Amino acid sequence: MGKIWAGRTDGTVNKIADDFNSSISFDSRMYKEDIKGSMAHAAMLSAKNIISKEDAELIIDGLADILNDIESGKLRIDFSAEDIHTFVEQTLTDRIGDIGKKLHTARSRNDQVALDLRLYLNNETQEVKDKLTNLISAICGKAEEYKSAVMPGYTHLQRAQPITFGHHLMAYSMMLLRDIDRLNDAKRRLSVSPIGSCALAGTTYDTDREFEAQKLGLNEVALNSIDGVSDRDFCIELCSALSLVMAHLSRFSEEIVLWSSWEFKFVELSDDFTTGSSIMPQKKNPDMAELVRGKTGRVYGDLMALLTMLKGLPLAYNKDMQEDKESIFDAFDTVKICLDVFIGMIGSITANADNMLKAAKGGFINATDLADYLTKKGMPFRTAYKISGEIVSFCIKENKTLDELTLKEYNSFSKTFENDLYDAIDLFTCVNARKSLGGTCVQSVEKQIEYVREKIKG
Ligand code: ARG
Predict the structure, then answer these.
(1) Using one digit for the tens of pLDDT, what is the confidence trace for 227-273?
(2) Cα(252)–Cα(289) distance, integer angstroms
């Protein structure tokens, strides 16, 4: 395709330079947004009598045909064009003649690309939000199923206190809810129309920017034309929100890898979401979780690329900004596929409640409750803590768990112990005694599930 900007030069460019400059291989995915933006622009030009009604109709119909033909496969995007904006405009002119050349009145590719990207990312953001909602819903389902399955809770990856698997799972729901909230917040700033900023300084035509914004469903217009074409903050903040989504999925992945190992045996992944080894017949590998963990680095890399691209750029448009697209598209593509995998993987995961309980019984994770037992009988906590520690040490020496010691043995440490201590250190009692707001007892987990489900409904 010839260059739309041929004039000052004859438009011929060195082949390597031309390929280097071209963005159509990655911006062609914005064809729909480009066409919709152009339709709104033509409608505005006509409403303001900048072009005639008849010309606008021809242009809008021509654009609608191009859209239909791309979608139906009748029109193939020509990858020799410089970018998607050029391709659409040139195809229009090829089809309807010189009237097509009126479309670019009172705009520039600088505001056009900023608009297309905002419209495209708005849809992508909605898709990620929907997927997050589905994942949260899958997590709530599993949390409900395992709301009373006792497992050890960890700090420093050392068994710490008894919790339920449902409670642990719901922690991830909370993180993902915040991710949705962050995307909603970024969406608000995404909904600003840069079109009409033109190259950088606005235009001499009597345009109506609000009209165009409204037609495109955008809530506001950029109030400074230089900022309108220079701003890529929205890419960075979206990528930052996506990085956090990946951080959460990566932590979850790490736990799934651990839990599904023979050392833990807390969960079993469905065959659909595991792979075998080419040499070791016994293997069932959690590749999906590992890949999600691995792909987190890509999205962080995308964020770093975007931040670095923008840093030090003078106002207004610079070609460096063409680099925004591959990074932000990659971040969205990666997050979307990871969420799809996660939704399936979590939906089909099964927990081994017996093994979790066995692990919970092994690590003296009711030692805090033993100290609390003494404290509730009037002993100062520090003293109770010390006695409980001595009892744990005794158990380790004797290779016993806390519930295996006799009352006589307990009384050799403190006369305060009575028969009711066994109930106090029972793991189910320990879990269900943690009734504090947000705690691990079954009712609290139920409340969390109810809260989260209500949140994702709206
Ligand atoms: N392909 C370009 C980009 O993605 C479009 C804007 C071109 N503007 C220009 N002044 N060369 O940034």
Answers:
(1) 999 999 999 999 999 999 999 999 999 999 999 999 999 999 998 88
(2) 8
Q: Please tell me if the CB atom of residue 70 comes closer than 6 angstroms to any atom of ligand 1.
A: no
Strands 267-268 and 220-221: unpaired
Written as six digits, the tokens of 448 are 């969390």
Residue 156 annotated to the active site:
yes
**CATH numbers and ranges of domains, the chain:** 15-105 (1.10.275.10), 110-200+224-358 (1.20.200.10), 367-425 (1.10.40.30)
Residue 198 pLDDT > 70 = yes
Catalytic residue among 277, 278, 388, 444: 277
Residue 83 Cβ contacting ligand 1 at under 6 Å: yes
261-318 residue pLDDT tens: 999 999 999 988 887 767 676 768 999 999 999 999 999 999 999 999 999 999 999 9
Q: Residue 20: CB partners within 8 Å, gap ≥ 6?
A: none
Asked whether the beta carbons of 351 and 169 are under 8 A apart, the reply is no
Selection from 168, 174, 164 nearest residue 135 by Cα: 174
The radius of gyration of the chain from alpha carbons, rounded to an integer in Å, stands at 31
